[in-house]
Design a protein that fits this description.
The chain is mostly helical. The chain has 29 helices and no strands. The protein is about 65% helix and about 0% strand.
Length: about 500
């Protein structure tokens, strides 16, 4: 592209496809070309805006872009004019422009062939997500079957999935099949956007996929569980023999997500819930127990014991759950799951084992020696704060954690800093315990570590504060770069001396 030597999104997607296949790609295709991965990416922001907030249209920008497009299609499409359109689009969020721009262009009666060529040019040459998304919008208006592969390729970048899905729906002769193909190539917000457009499908192949895998995504299975249960007709599928293990375990995932509830429809919105639970329990009781089935039945039991369950036979259903999880083979399977060498599987096994009364602490402590940076393992042990403090002093690299305060918040943070945060954040409830850890947190490069240290000391009665803490806090207050934390330190010193110096600037 004239005047722009950065990598195009098309080139980025092509390279990912060559390396990883059709998708899903690692991290949804992030980081994007020439754009470091931010805390809240375009992909996440579009997902949040479309599901939890009202997107604010920008008709003024849409009009501006429509006029630039009209000028390009009624005059010579010079490189400079193309670059100007690209750069104008790059200064605005595509989500706020897409709908009003579609309306604007529909009223201009522009040549379809020209719109399609311009859409492909932006899609293939864009070096910023908004111009590429604009190209996908134009292909939705003027594209055809020839653009399917391009839309699928760029749509596998999850920052562009939403725009590709809309374009596929508007331009393809079999839009549902095209969207289904893309849904299988993405696993985050892109999958959520795609599967939501498969709601109500009569296609048995898509329905079967929804029940086994289609509801799963990197964001929250809860977004798609109800859609999968209803569109996929989960109850009828479980009643139709033979029920394969993939379907039974998919049902487990759907029922678990429905029990958790939110941010979409949940189990109380599912009309077939009681019958589906009954059928699931019947089938699960006929199969060898595994971790997913055990965890699901335990979650169903908790739901059935809650006020959310209003079924007339909920007591009987709960008794069926208790009967399964009390079987010796189920208890043995839960115990064996704690021996899984995979850390992720081990973590999933902890809560079910605890619910079944299986001792977990010795094995969690042993696994912690192998994975001392894992916050969840530490969290499981925090009911015994003395043990946690002793383990932390032995397992954490404390000398490397207290290297001095910085302004960067979590910049320079090590995984162990997150563990330190978790432990020190609980010491306010344990006066006099863990001072060596608090001392390290006071000198941590992460602001939150230092904040948790001040909070803990501030909650301790005067008689439980070690003598050396005053000098440490006084020193920390002199070198603290963050004004908020510095004021907290000065206030803490004032409460100890009876002379609060007030906020500093």
């Amino acid at each position: 592209m004239t005047g722009d030597a950065r990598q195009t999104y098309f080139g980025h997607a092509t390279a990912l496809a060559a390396t990883h296949g059709p998708g899903p790609w690692p991290h949804g295709g992030h980081p994007q070309p020439d754009r470091p991965r931010p805390l809240l990416s375009d992909t996440v922001l579009d997902g949040v805006l479309t599901h939890h907030a009202r997107n604010t249209p920008d008709p003024a920008t849409a009009t501006q872009l429509a006029h630039l497009i009209q000028a390009l299609l009624t005059g010579p499409p010079t490189p400079a004019a193309l670059q100007h359109l690209h750069d104008a689009a790059a200064t605005h969020r595509a989500l706020s422009v897409a709908d009003p721009l579609t309306t604007e262009l529909a009223g201009l009666d522009l040549p379809t062939a020209g719109l399609r060529r311009l859409g492909r040019w932006l899609a293939e040459h864009g070096t910023h997500p908004s111009p590429v998304a604009l190209g996908l919008v134009l292909l939705g208006l003027a594209g055809d079957h020839r653009d399917r592969d391009l839309l699928l390729l760029l749509g596998t970048l999850e920052s562009l999935s939403l725009y590709a899905i809309v374009a596929l729906a508007r331009s393809q002769p079999d839009p549902e099949a095209a969207i289904f193909t893309l849904a299988q190539r993405v696993d985050g917000w892109g999958r959520i956007h795609a599967v939501e457009r498969l709601r109500g499908t009569p296609d048995p192949r898509i329905k079967a996929w929804l029940l086994r895998d289609g509801f799963r995504n990197r964001i929250m299975d809860e977004y798609l569980a109800h859609l999968a249960a209803t569109t996929g007709d989960l109850l009828q599928a479980l009643r139709t023999a033979p029920v394969d293990d993939a379907l039974l375990d998919g049902a487990a995932g759907i029922l678990s997500a429905l029990c958790i509830g939110g941010p979409a429809e949940e189990i109380t919105d599912y009309a077939d819930a009681a019958e589906t639970i009954e059928q699931y329990l019947t089938l699960a009781g006929q199969r060898p127990p595994n971790l997913e089935r055990i965890a699901t039945v335990l979650r169903l039991a908790r739901f059935l014991a809650s006020d959310r369950a209003t079924y007339p036979d909920r007591t009987r259903l709960r008794q069926r759950c208790d009967g399964l999880t009390g079987r010796p083979d189920w208890i043995l399977a839960a115990d064996r799951a704690l021996d899984d060498p995979d850390l992720a599987r081990f973590r999933l096994a902890i809560a079910p084992a605890q619910h079944l009364g299986i001792p977990t602490r010795p094995r969690v402590r042993a696994r912690l020696h192998e994975h001392p940076d894992d916050p969840y393992l530490w969290q499981v042990l925090t009911d015994d704060i003395d043990d946690v403090i002793a383990l932390a002093r032995h397992l954490l690299p404390l000398d490397a954690l207290g290297t001095g305060p910085t302004r960067g918040g979590r910049r320079g943070a090590l995984p162990a800093h997150h563990v330190l945060d978790l432990i020190v954040g609980r010491l306010d409830a344990h006066p006099g315990k863990g001072w060596p850890l608090i001392r390290v947190a006071l000198a941590s490069p992460t602001t939150h570590n230092r904040t948790m240290a001040v909070r803990a000391l501030g909650a301790w009665p005067a008689g439980t504060v070690p003598a050396e803490a005053f000098a440490a806090v006084e020193h920390a207050s002199r070198i603290e770069p963050d004004a908020t934390v510095r004021n907290k330190l000065r206030h803490l010193l004032g409460t100890w001396t009876g002379a609060d110096p007030g906020p500093s600037r």
